[in-house]
TrEMBL record, chains A, B, C, D:
PANTHER family: HTH-TYPE TRANSCRIPTIONAL REGULATOR RUTR, HTH-TYPE TRANSCRIPTIONAL REPRESSOR KSTR2. Gene3D superfamilies: Homeodomain-like, Tetracycline Repressor, domain 2. InterPro entries: Homeodomain-like_sf, HTH-type_TetR-like_transc_reg, HTH_TetR, KstR2_TetR_C, Tet_transcr_reg_TetR-rel_C_sf. Residues 12-72 form the HTH tetR-type domain. Residues 35-54 bind DNA. Residues 214-235 are annotated as: Disordered. It comes from Streptomyces asoensis. GO terms for molecular function: DNA-binding transcription factor activity; transcription cis-regulatory region binding. Keywords: DNA-binding, Repressor, Transcription, Transcription regulation. The lineage of its organism: Bacteria, Bacillati, Actinomycetota, Actinomycetes, Kitasatosporales. This is TetR/AcrR family transcriptional regulator.
Length: 235, 235, 235, 235
DNA sequence: CATGAATGAGCTTTCATTCAT
DNA sequence: AATGAATGAAAGCTCATTCAT
């Protein structure tokens, strides 16, 4: 997103801080119920000054959506491409998704709640990205069925169960509670893998395999460096 | 909810129509983003005339929430009190919940999305009712564990999985699609009962038992007569 | 004020009741802050039915003003024309004015407070009537000076003192308190007659003379029959 | 009343101008009958911009009431505490009150007419301040009776006469007429002191004594510097 | 006589956005 | 880089009034 030329070094830092704060407010009060005034007060900047950093209120919403979508999709692509049992990949994908939810709960609230306030092109882009994520999940589930690990169920319905189970978590999770992403991911996958599992099939030790991957690549659930690289995600 | 005295016979009919329309608009655009003007245009009434039927915009939200909560909770209580295997009761509860979601998708959107726009007493009441529903689910899950049908898992986490799976459905379901509430309920419970099931336990034929109940009481998932009786739910 | 022809016998009764109630509400809440709805509720009539009896909200204000002005001015003319010492006539006029204030405090509130909400012709008429009342008072005061009962003071300023003293009473008087119109009138006139009195002049026993008049004509302060004859007052 | 931080130098000036204009409009049309739109038009500002300066319409009313009450009560306290004959103090208090009425006639209109539109805490505060003022007057009248300067009359009724006489002046006075506060005060006190005076008592030369005080303290009737300092009045 | 229903203008207030400085 | 000031549109809601029945 190109800016007018000649910005000082602090520009981007402050800009990111503003988006952070916006996510917090939008999550707490809703996008429509949060005023630009509220945001200005929260970041300690007069309304006029805010517009030096942001283009519009809707643009903030877009940025927040991107911040969720970009790392999520980039990690999902990577995990789906791993050379590992589909069950293990599902387990890793689950933890990656839950990790983002735990780390940036407010962004997720906005992502889940207010994406329908978006209009025009960006909404289309976003829906496309959501569809891609869904396809990645479905691909793994289908592979597990083909291998005989899972019963033959409608892959679409199975995918939606996977997504329901994970995506609704933001509604009640508390980031500083006594559960973490790894714990919940294990519990969810326990249910799903058994639930989808073919009657006779002996499921591999998914947990151990996932552990091994995470030992090698601690950034696998969520890259901490590029965490909020809001670079647009090529679809 | 008694109205000021002296309203003609058409009053209540039109009033219900207005609430219906409001649910539709709120679902599509969000509560905060829908103006009373929009609603007036949609029902073909000037803004002023609208207020002849409604008390306030927030009151519409309350009515919509009640229309979801009242039948849901009343049915849930009844099902939980049935003399049947907890697994069967879970299956019936699942279908009841999904039936409401299918029948009044727009109400559910509002119910799930905009309950945080409520203020004051009613919000407290609503949260209390949601908590009661959650307790009913947890009670059945716990009983299934005590009987040895389910593995010993954290009942709280199990409850949340049940709710995640069902409650997120509104996000993608299409009421006129090729799935119905019974089909989805079967799929969800297939996953959950197997997923939670104790390794050696032979699960009973839940589907057949549930069918029997529904044959006897076709209104069990959702009473069609009193469907939207928005009578307040005694807590 | 001619009505559409063919009104039943109860019409005028109910109409008067409505004006009474309006005066009560206007006095309590102010003319602008009282809605036609409030009035309807107070008289137990739907808004639509009200307009069968009244022409408009402003018209109510006019009627209330008339109900004060008509008896006040009619009595004032009569008293001013009496064959009696000007001091006695002032005393009788004072009591007449205070009697109206006590009897219809709410009308007086409206009269004093909201006459400026009137527009057009009627406001002019009303101001003319107020001026006439003022002239009657001034006439009596002037006569008292000419006779040497009063010091020579600016008659205009003296008149305004008389009016200030009486007309502001509505602000704090309580009709069911332990003072009545006669008591206050005596107190006010005590102050005024002594205050205006010429240094050497021996003031007559005004109280006794006034008593005599009232014995003969108990209706002198305020005609109870024609009390609210809202017939328009010829100016 | 500190404003949100960071207002330019012109802010307070314009703010005061707006309150002035509001007083003018409220006086002419009444508080309830004056719209924020009217006010905006009168000060040449769009409705939205007005709210940059004011908090609410009711707040304007509060400020106007304060502008009357604060200087009035502060001066009244000071005068009541003077070491002088109660009659002289009454004379000074009278002139102080009339001076405020002359100087800010529109504020007084609002003060007298629309105080009942106030709600909540501020109304209570205001009524308390009005009661205090009344107590100060009554105190002086009582002292004059104790000294034998005045006849023994009901102090409450005497107080109300003092207040009626002065407070109703706003109804007809014209600030640019040929009378001023000093003239009217002299006339009113002439009437009251003689009217209340004990039969045999030789009243001191109140006018001369009052003149002496005013020569020493030209700001005694009304401090011109802090004239509209709307600082809250400690009760 | 009286009602329920409707309207359109107006109310107070908040909003996202702009811009000269 | 940031501010104070301004705008015009729109928000939720109330109002006086009308009228078919």
């Amino acid at each position: 997103m190109p800016r007018p030329p000649g910005h000082g070094p602090g520009f981007e830092v402050r800009r990111q801080k503003i988006i952070d704060t916006a996510a917090e407010l939008f999550a707490r009060q809703g996008y429509a119920a949060t005023s630009v005034n509220d945001l200005g007060r929260a970041v300690g900047l007069a309304k006029g000054a805010l517009y030096y950093y942001i283009d519009s209120k809707e643009n903030l919403l877009i940025e927040i959506q991107s911040r969720v979508m970009a790392p999520l999709l980039s990690r999902a692509r990577e995990i789906a491409a791993l050379d590992a049992d589909p069950l293990v990949r599902l387990r890793l994908l689950s933890e990656s998704l839950l990790t983002i939810i735990f780390r940036r709960l407010d962004h997720i609230w906005v992502y889940e709640h207010d994406y329908r306030s978006l209009t025009g092109d960006y909404l289309q882009t976003l829906l496309g990205q959501r569809a891609e994520f869904e396809r990645l999940v479905r691909g793994l589930l289908t592979k597990a069925m083909e291998r005989g690990s899972f019963r033959a169920v409608d892959p679409h319905v199975a995918t939606l169960q996977f997504l329901n189970l994970h995506n609704h978590t933001y509604q009640w999770v508390k980031p500083d509670g006594h559960w973490d992403a790894a714990y919940l991911s294990r519990a969810y996958c326990d249910t799903l893998l058994r639930g989808f599992g073919a009657p006779g099939a002996a499921l591999p030790d998914v947990e151990e395999a996932a552990e091994a991957f995470k030992r090698d690549r601690p950034d696998l659930p969520l890259d901490p460096e590029a965490e909020w690289r809001s670079a647009s995600v090529a679809s």
